[in-house]
Amino acid sequence: MNVRSSLLSLATATTAVLASLTVATSATQAAPTADTPASTSTVFIDAASLPADELSDLGHPIPYAEYARIQEGKAPARQAAADPDPGDQQDLRQQCANHAAQAKTATGWIKSRFESCQKRPFDLVLRDIRGTTTLGRLWFDQWVLGFAYDGNRRVDYVASIENIRVQPIPTEDATKWRLGQHFRDTINVSKSDPDPKVTVPQTVARDELLGVWDRTPHWTLTYTSPDKGALFDQGNQQRVFSTVTMDLSASSPNSAPFTEGGSVYTSSVRYDYAGKVAGKHKGAVFTKARVELVMSQKDPAVNESALHIYDALNRPERTFPSWPGKTVPGAKEPLHRLINKEKQDANRKRSIKECEKVWGNYSGSGLECDEYPFASTKEGSTKGDNRFSVRLIDGDDNETGGRRLNDMYTLNRMLDGDAFYMKITT
C-alpha cells in the first residue's frame, strides 16, 4: 500500500471512530425542544465537576491537528518534529516533568531563586448554559517557565498551551474554540522600598483559536524594574516586591465566560539593587523558592560542623547550653540572614562566652567555638531564647563551613531577613 493510500485509510478510520463516538454521545443528550433557541449559550467547565457517567462517551481525545484536518476533509499529516527549545528551557522542562505534583499547582515547581516551572493539565467540558447538553471536551497542558536573573533586574516567562486534544459532538466545531492566557502584575508597595516600579511587556494577553496555539504554542513575556543607580550605601536597596498572575480563558461562539480560570498561575518576585552584600550588585529572585544550605557528615572539610548542626537539630540534648525540652531552628523553622555587623559580633561574643563556660580556656588548641544558629542569622545566640548550640571543633572545619554559608548567601541573593533552611546528609 502506498503512503497516500495509507493516509486516506487512516483518515477514513479516524472519521469512523469520531462518528461512532459522537453518535453514542448524542444519544445520551437531551433532545432540543421546539422552543429551544437555535443558538444556545454555552460554557466551559472543569470535567472534574461532572459525574463520571456523564463523561463516559467523552473519553476519547483526538489530537487537535488530526481533528482539524479531518474537518477539512484531508488525511492526517505526519507530525513534524518540534523546534528544539534552548538548552536551559529544555532542561527545566525535563526536571519539571519529574516534579509533576508540585508543577501543577498555582505556583508551580520552584527549582531555585532563579528558575521556576508550571506544567498544569486541563480537562474542560463544553456544555449549554443550563447544563442539559454536553457539546464536547477539551484537553491541553499549560506551561509557564520562569527565569530570574542574578545581575539583572529582569524576569522572563515562557508561556505555552500544548498537547491540545478535543472531542466535540458532530454539530459542534472545535476549530472555533479559543483559549487565552492573560497576565497581570501587582506591586506590594508597603513591602517595597520607595518608588517601586515594574515595566511590563507590551503584550500581556494572548487569546487565540486552538489551531493558532497548536501551530505556535510558545510566547515570551519580559518584566523589568528600572533603577536609579547604586543607592545601597544610602540605605536604599531599591527592592520591589511584585506578583505576576495569569488568568486562563476558554470560549466558543456564544459562550459565557469561563469562571474557573482565575489565577491559575502566580509568581512572586523581588527585584533589588543591594550591592555587594548580595553578590552581584543587582538582580531578581523568585521569593517563594526554598533555599537550603546542605552539609554532609561524610565531607572531611566540614564533617565536624555538619555533625554539630545535626545534633542541634535532631539531638539537642547533646548540645550546650543544655535545658529540658530544648529545640533549635533550621530544619522545620527557617533561619533568617542578619546583615548588621554589630549584631553579628554580639552573637559571636555571646557564643564564645558559652564555650568558655563549658570548656574553659581553649586557646592554642587549634579548636574554635562553632555556633549554631550562625552569628549571621537573626536566630543567633543573643536572640534571648537560648535555642542555640556551641561546640569546639577543628578551626579549619569551622572556617570552611563559614565560607560555604557566605557562598550560599551570595549565590542566592540573600538579603537581610531572607529565610533559609539547613539540610545535613549522612
UniProtKB/TrEMBL annotation:
Q: Which residues form the signal peptide?
A: 1-30
Q: Deoxyribonuclease NucA/NucB domain spans which residues? A: 340-422
Stretches with biased composition (Low complexity): 76-89
Q: Which UniProt keywords apply?
A: Signal
Keyword Signal appears in the UniProt entry: yes
| Spans annotated as Disordered | 73-98
> Which InterPro entries does this one have?
DNase_NucA_NucB
UniProt protein name: Deoxyribonuclease NucA/NucB domain-containing protein
Give the species this sequence originates from.
Answer: Streptomyces pharetrae CZA14
